[in-house]
Design goal:
The complex is a heterotrimer. Chain A has two domains: 230 residues, Rossmann fold (3-Layer(aba) Sandwich), CATH 3.40.50.300; 114 residues, Nucleic acid-binding proteins (OB fold (Dihydrolipoamide Acetyltransferase, E2P)), CATH 2.40.50. Chain A is built from nine helices and 20 strands. In chain A, the strands form four sheets. Chain A has a six-stranded mixed sheet, sandwiched between helices. The longest helix of chain A is centred in the middle third of the chain and has 18 residues. The radius of gyration of chain A is 25 Å and the shape is elongated. The model of chain A has no long low-confidence stretch (mean pLDDT 89). By secondary structure, chain B is mainly α. Chain B has a three-stranded antiparallel sheet with strand order 1-3-2, with helices on one face. In chain B, helix 4 runs parallel beside helix 8, helix 6 crosses helix 8 and helix 11 runs antiparallel to helix 14. The longest helix of chain B is centred in the middle third of the chain and has 32 residues. Chain C has a domain of 194 residues: Orthogonal Bundle (MetI-like fold), CATH 1.10.3720. In chain C, a hairpin with a 2-residue loop joins strand 1 and strand 2. In chain C, helix 3 packs across helix 14. Classes of the chains: A alpha+beta, B mainly alpha, C mainly alpha. Chains in contact: A-C, B-C. Chains B and C meet through helix 1, helix 5, helix 6, helix 7 and helix 8 of B and helix 1, helix 4, helix 5, helix 6 and helix 10 of C.
């Protein structure tokens, strides 16, 4: 069983805490993505799982075994680094077989495992080349191949696609996804790119400042973010937040309004809303629609910038209180600068947050 | 994994350094049946004690100044003061080092160890001549080599070549070159000048011995510092030179405003390394002049070796070593001060 | 660069080359003199100093001086001693100092930073300041050999080798180089299960070609050209290196021809080695300068 659990894991550098009590459960065969902004601790967390960083407090279990004090090599993990970290003075074959060479495995075993991994990654023709003769994508494959040869319980990926160009990144993303299904292995993947997270993950862990914000399936996080940070982090372009105040309260619903928004009832799970409370109303750009009639919609604003992308038009709008929002409309409509528009949206497709 | 290095360095560098300090306060000999005794500051006193004595000229019974056959004043012999004269106890065992005329009186400088004092003065002289001269020449050479000419690397290799040769080999070779009768220098100069330039006893005359050694030492080592200057020159961004060229800067202006500021740290490094190497002057002396003629090429390290090894006076040699270390340490700290990060 | 008339260009270039060549001659003439003189009998050698013949292989050229030098002193033995001592010291130094540097850069242990500071501090201590007390120590150190426990290391190979195996400069060079290696390479090796020594042997050292060359060259020059220490500690002929062997040649009857032959013999191999690898030699010195 290649499952993993972190229980109240903490890490501090001296007196400065970087990981502040993290609980995560990962099941056998899951593809879990740690995502978050720079400095949130996702790489540190991954390195703690790998054994490259100490765990100050808490418990880390791999396959139901506590591994806090085990060396990386004893944890049955394999890691793919952001810079690939393949040894420049060895051939591809020697790179991939390195772990076995260290463990003094027989030549047959090494050949068998290396060839198998090369077959999976379709790189048999590269085996006798040196890293300097390989492209970025090929080197990435060597790094993955080396991980596969280890036959680990858990694969760890530390932002492996960050150093590749955009087109290659998409190809490799699909490759990794296929690999996951093929090997049926547990994989933990760190990235700052939420698109990678959304497309690859079975489960996403959103981190900020060393704390877990939310754990769940991609769509779960997309449609039901628990806080403003997660809501703003997932989805691109990111969610708009409009400052509103509570106008009226009903059971399970709150009426909100603002300078630019006419009163509107929103289903709410906010605890104990009171009249006059200031809240944040979150609406995704894709869920805003421009009304033909400028009096129809409840949200009023002025178009500042128009980006016509052919299939959609992205509008940068300014609201009455000088705040800016983005709307992504599906038609190829032409808007003029400073045109006054009104927007409408479905209250069910919004989120309310206390700041 | 660091254990072998740490223990070796401790045993062969740290311990001897500490021993040097400790031994300087004893009367340790290299091989001796007698136990070593603690003697306090005596070794330092023996080496460093100096005294000024002002003497009035001798007068005859009537109070007239006595004059010797050259017409110069006569002064009491110093020996009368330094050999058990109860009025001048502190001068016992000291000898004359130098003297200057002050009007009628004469000011004598006496030292307890005149040879050592001469060694110190010679070494300082060597350092103060070699440091700027060698450093400056090395810079000139580096500027010459820093041109984009075909084959410039060949010249660089040639300029550097003497560095690779042992200073001992160089010293012995130049001994023939400097030889008074058969030396290459004298003979070539004589031939080229059709006999106008007379032969000079370069190493045998106290006027020229040290200077000859200076010239030879610079010849051998200047390539080393040329390379250090070169690497400093090459860290100056070429775009700075281009900007200066666009501004119409002359060669000298470019050097003064672009090159020199970028070389400041290198300059400090070069000077410090030359200085520290210069204080260690030994091999040339040992091979060429053995401290002579007339102690004009005595140096601090030569004295240390002569005592510690030659006379088996380990404590004396150690004392000199300590003094040398203090000087070198002072210079290093001064360098750190000069190259500190300015806030 | 100032714009100059086409005619001027060629002239200016020529002037530069002339200046450079004149300077080069200054650096080269003593060495040429040395080699040429080694091939001439004493009498001719000395009279040739009157003219440019000193630099030319003219007259009674032969290897006679070389043979005579071998008669006067056990030159072969001296050369062997020098090569042996230098070679062993360089090899041991590379191994020992690189291991220490690895430990300082990649391992974490108590007192590590203090120890490294101390080692780097020894860079300031010139050998001459510790030579005398070291002499005393060397004369009293014990040694276990096949004959049992002996005291005193004088007149041996070990006294010429062991004190110089570990030195601050070599450690410093390796430390600087190791610090620049990509950290992820080391981490990948750790994850793959390599022990620290395996990482040292299989990953770090194979990638350390440049610094090994630099350290080896600097150490080689320092050891081969050493004079003060072997002078003091090796009196017996059996263990004398080449530089101290010189003493055989400036006794009372000075045979300059033989001296020149001996000097050429011990210098030319190093010079040849240098000219072949001069880029590496010069780069070695340059790198110590930059890091200084």
């Amino acid at each position: 069983m290649a499952n993993l659990s972190l229980r109240n894991v903490k890490k501090s550098y001296g007196n400065a805490p970087v990981i502040k009590g993290v609980d995560i459960e990962i099941n056998d065969g899951e593809f879990v993505v740690f995502v978050g902004p720079s400095g949130c601790g996702k790489s540190t967390l991954l390195r703690m799982i790998a054994g490259l960083e100490d765990i100050t407090d808490g418990e880390l279990r791999i396959s139901d075994r506590v591994v806090n004090d085990l060396e990386p090599k004893d944890r049955k993990i394999a890691m793919v680094f952001q810079s690939y970290a393949i040894f420049p003075h060895m051939t591809v074959r020697e790179n991939m077989a390195f772990g076995l060479t260290i463990a003094k495995a027989s030549q047959e075993e090494k050949d068998a495992k290396v060839n198998e991994a090369a077959r999976i990654l379709k790189m048999e023709h590269l085996l006798d080349r040196r890293p300097s003769q390989l492209s970025g994508g090929q080197r990435q494959r060597v790094a993955i191949g080396r991980a596969i040869v280890r036959q680990p319980s858990v694969f760890l990926f530390d932002e492996p696609l960050s150093n590749l160009d955009a087109a290659l990144r998409m190809d490799m993303r699909m490759e990794i996804s296929k690999l996951h299904k093929q090997l049926d292995a547990t994989m933990i993947y760190v990235t700052h790119d939420q698109v990678e997270a959304m497309t690859l993950a079975d489960k996403i862990v959103v981190l900020k400042d060393g704390e877990v914000q939310q754990i769940g399936a991609p769509m779960e996080l997309y449609h039901h973010p628990v806080n403003k940070f997660v809501a703003g982090f997932m989805g691109s372009p990111s969610m708009n937040f409009i400052d509103v105040h509570v106008n009226a309260v009903r059971e399970g619903e709150v009426e909100v309004k603002s300078e630019s928004l006419e009163a509107i009832w929103i289903p709410s799970t906010i605890e104990a809303p009171k009249l006059g409370d200031r809240l944040s109303l979150g609406v995704r750009p894709q869920y805003l629609r421009v009304c033909e009639d400028t009096h129809e919609g409840k949200l009023h604003g002025k178009v500042l910038i128009t980006e016509r992308l052919g299939t959609e038009t992205v509008l940068d709008l300014s609201l009455a209180d000088q705040s800016r929002i983005i709307a992504s409309v599906a038609e190829d409509t032409i808007f003029s600068e400073n045109q006054e528009v009104s927007l409408t949206f479905n209250p069910l497709q919004t989120h309310l947050f206390r700041d | 994994m660091a254990f072998p290095t740490l223990s070796l360095i401790t045993l062969f560098i740290v311990v001897p350094l500490i021993f040097a300090f400790g031994l300087s306060f004893t009367n340790q000999r290299l091989i001796s049946p007698k136990p070593t005794e603690f003697v306090g500051w005596q070794n330092y006193y023996q080496l460093l004690d100096l005294s000024f004595v002002k003497l009035a000229p001798e007068k005859d019974a009537d109070g007239n100044l006595l004059v010797d056959k050259n017409g110069e004043y006569k002064y009491p012999r110093l020996r009368t003061l330094s050999r058990g004269n109860p009025d001048y106890e502190h001068l016992r065992g000291m000898r004359e080092w130098n003297s200057w005329q002050l009007g009628e009186d004469r000011l004598y400088l006496m030292a307890r160890d005149v040879v050592f004092m001469k060694a110190v003065v010679n070494t300082l002289f060597f350092v103060m001549v070699v440091a700027p001269l060698q450093g400056g020449l090395a810079l000139v050479l580096a500027l010459l080599i820093n041109q984009r000419l075909r084959g410039i690397n060949l010249y660089r290799a040639v300029f550097f070549m003497p560095v690779v040769v042992s200073i001992v080999v160089v010293s012995l070779l130049w001994r023939l070159i400097y030889d008074a009768n058969d030396g290459l220098l004298n003979n070539l100069l004589g031939t080229l000048s059709f006999g106008l330039i007379p032969a000079v006893d370069w190493l045998g005359s106290s006027d020229t011995a040290m200077e000859s050694i200076i010239a030879m030492s610079i010849w051998q080592a200047v390539g080393f510092h040329m390379v250090i200057w070169l690497s400093g020159l090459q860290t100056i961004s070429p775009t700075l030179y281009e900007a200066a060229a666009i501004e119409g800067s002359s060669r000298w202006q470019t050097f003064r405003y672009v090159t020199w500021p970028g070389l400041r740290n290198t300059a400090v490094l070069v000077l410090i390394v030359i200085t520290m190497q210069a204080f260690a002057l030994f091999a040339q002396i040992d091979v060429m002049t053995q401290g002579g003629p007339l102690d004009s090429t005595q140096t601090i390290v030569f004295q240390a070796v002569e005592r510690g090894y030659g006379k088996q006076d380990i404590s004396g040699g150690s004392t000199i070593s300590v003094l040398l270390f203090v000087i070198v340490l002072g210079i290093s700290l001064f360098q750190r001060y000069l190259t500190r990060e300015k806030a | 660069m100032t714009v100059s008339h086409p005619d001027n260009r060629g002239l200016r270039l020529l002037v530069r080359y002339i200046v450079l060549t004149l300077i080069a001659l200054i650096f080269v003439f003593p060495l040429v003199f040395m080699v040429m003189s080694s091939l001439k009998p004493d009498l001719q050698l000395l009279t040739d100093t009157n003219s440019l013949r000193a630099f030319l292989p003219v007259g009674d050229i032969s290897l006679g001086n070389y043979f005579a030098a071998f008669e006067r002193a056990p030159v072969g033995l001296f050369v062997f001693n020098s090569v042996f001592v230098t070679g062993i010291t360089v090899l041991l130094s590379l191994a020992v100092c690189s291991m220490a540097a690895f430990s300082f850069v990649f391992l974490n242990w108590k007192g590590r930073d203090v120890m490294l500071t101390i080692i780097l501090a020894t860079l300031i201590v010139p050998f001459e300041t510790i030579a005398i007390p070291l002499l005393l120590i060397a004369s009293k150190l014990p040694w276990l050999s096949f004959d049992g426990l002996t005291t005193g290391w004088l007149n041996t190979y070990r006294v010429q080798i062991i004190p110089f195996i570990a030195d601050g400069l070599t450690v410093f060079l390796f430390v600087q180089y190791f610090k620049d290696l990509p950290r992820e390479l080391i981490e990948a090796a750790r994850v793959e299960g390599a022990s620290w020594f395996q990482i040292f042997r299989r990953i770090v050292m194979p990638l350390s070609g440049p610094v090994i060359a630099t350290a080896a060259i600097l150490k080689f020059l320092a050891m081969y050209n050493q004079y003060l220490w072997p002078l003091m500690v090796v009196q017996e002929e059996t263990y004398r290196p080449v530089m101290v062997g010189l003493q055989y040649f400036f006794q009372l009857n000075r045979a300059w021809g033989e001296i020149m032959a001996y000097l050429s013999l011990i210098t030319l191999p190093v010079l040849a080695f240098y000219l072949y690898l001069q880029k590496a030699f010069i780069a070695s010195i340059a790198s110590t300068g930059v890091k200084g």
